[in-house]
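> example.struct
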């Protein structure tokens, strides 16, 4: 049985980038719904006992959708921290690879946000790593995750409207640009090096 991931910060800690009200709905209602749905679907299924990543790689339909949303949201919520406490730029091998591939952190962030804005409908924009350390920005529709393509997910922005509508209404680009203020680059670096 899966449980709702605990946030590593207080519900109001990400404001004004993400309000406590948005976190209450996004984490407390939407993500809880995916957890509850998946737990109802698993008993007696061929996916019972698998990790979320394995389910996303193997399943389809409702199991895929709910497992994917849990995996995606778990990565999403744990990559943030209060703006006053997070490193505002990556360091080490991740910073070097971003510089090598995009020329600068700003150029990378610009392309990442553009991919998020350009994703039609609902989904996710991801920074992932290939096995050789090369970085990839991808758009994933619905509940999809880069693990399906054999990539290691490092950073994601949720472009489903429930992630930002209470705070930004239909201004997806503004929301995505603000998220950089709360990205905990130490978490992203650990994912890259793990």
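> example.seq
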């Amino acid at each position: 049985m899966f449980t709702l991931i605990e946030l590593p910060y207080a519900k109001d800690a990400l404001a004004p980038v993400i309000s406590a009200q948005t976190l209450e709905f996004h984490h407390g209602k939407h993500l809880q719904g995916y957890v509850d749905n998946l737990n109802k679907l698993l008993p007696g299924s061929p996916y019972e006992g698998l990790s979320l990543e394995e389910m996303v790689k193997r399943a389809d339909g409702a199991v895929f959708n709910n497992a994917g949303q849990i995996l995606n949201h778990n990565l999403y919520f744990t990559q943030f921290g209060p703006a006053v406490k997070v490193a505002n730029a990556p360091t080490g091998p991740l910073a070097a690879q971003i510089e090598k591939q995009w020329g600068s952190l700003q150029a990378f962030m610009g392309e990442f946000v553009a991919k998020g804005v350009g994703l039609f409908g609902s989904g996710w924009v991801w920074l992932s790593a290939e096995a050789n350390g090369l970085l990839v920005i991808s758009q994933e529709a619905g509940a999809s995750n880069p693990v399906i393509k054999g990539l290691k997910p490092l950073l994601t922005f949720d472009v489903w409207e429930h992630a930002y509508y209470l705070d930004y209404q239909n201004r997806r680009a503004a929301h995505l640009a603000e998220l950089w203020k709360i990205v905990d680059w130490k978490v992203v670096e650990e994912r890259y090096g793990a």
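> remarks
Helices lie at 20-41, 52-58, 61-78, 92-102, 105-118, 165-168, 172-179, 185-193.
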